[in-house]
Amino acid sequence: MAKGKLSTTITLTITIILAITVYSLEFNVFDTESSLMNSTKKYIHQAEAGKMYEPKYVLSEKIGSQMIVVFSDKNYENFMGAIVFQRGVNGLWRPTKAQFETGPVIQSISTKENLNEDIYTAYFSINCPPEIKSYKTSNIYIDKSHQYVTDVLDEKKITGPKFIDVHKADISAVSFSLYDKDGVELPREKYLAMNQGYPNVAMNTAELGFINIVCLIIIAIGGSIAWLSYRKQRQ
């Protein structure tokens, strides 16, 4: 009997350790500037092999179980981007999405669709020109006549060159306009055009649910083995 209990305990212990190990392989980034930037560098290298990226932390904002981190780069002028991190149940993070390019003075990125959390879009800049004093976001949809209709969702004042503003909206359904101090709309092509000579990559990784499923399978198999062993020793 004692030998059977020991076998069951060992099986459950190995199962839990294996599940935690697999989970920690995915969620292994600490909430520190150095850890976040090391993860960012590895992540963007997946799409731009051979580039000498040296991302530098600028700003961050946490929204629910996600975090948007804005970064620049030491090797490229006017380079700016953001990366979305997802927090795991172990309290650590993993990258799930990144957007970076050279040229636009204001950029944006949306959080991932996650469980019951809403999608948020962050507008950010690290060197916004002083003549830009505000911006407006508008929701875009199509009515029954197939005509585009917009509703102004929000207007944000810009008080400095470095900022991150979070809106409860999906970027795919939002338009964006810039204004000066007199409320005159500024030309998009001057401030939001991308320099095609530099990288522009939007990336995604596997959904959060996948790693959860893998861990649940491990626990289910290990738990079943332990249960069968326990039943056998009771007979």
What attributes does this structure have?
235 residues; alpha+beta; 5-stranded antiparallel sheet; 3-stranded antiparallel sheet
Fold and architecture overview:
With 235 residues, the protein is of the alpha+beta class. It has one domain (31-208). 29% of the residues lie in helices and 34% in strands. It contains four helices and eleven strands, in the order H-H-E-E-E-E-E-E-E-E-E-E-H-E-H. It has helices spanning 2-26, 33-45, 188-191, 208-234, and strands at residues 55-63, 66-73, 79-87, 93-102, 107-110, 121-125, 134-142, 148-157, 163-167, 174-179, 201-204. A five-stranded antiparallel beta sheet has the order 1-2-3-4-11, with helices on one face. Strands 5-6-9 form a three-stranded antiparallel beta sheet, with no helix packed on it. Strands 8-7-10 form a three-stranded antiparallel beta sheet, with no helix packed on it. A hairpin with a 5-residue loop joins strand 7 and strand 8 (148-157). Helix 1 packs antiparallel against helix 4. The protein is elongated and about 85 Å long. The relative contact order is 0.18.
Structural class: alpha+beta
Instruction: Write down the overall mean pLDDT.
Output: 78
- Note the run of SSEs as H and E: HHEEEEEEEEEEHEH
Alpha-carbon distance between the two ends: 10 Å
**How many distinct domains?**
1
Question: What oligomeric assembly is this protein in?
Answer: single chain
Tertiary shape: elongated
Low-confidence stretches: none
The amount of beta strand, in percent, is: 25-35%
Work out the helix count.
Answer: 4
Helix content: 25-40%
Spatial order of the strands forming the largest sheet = 1-2-3-4-11
| Count of beta strands | 11
Rg, please?
23 Å
**Sheet of most strands:** 5 strands, antiparallel
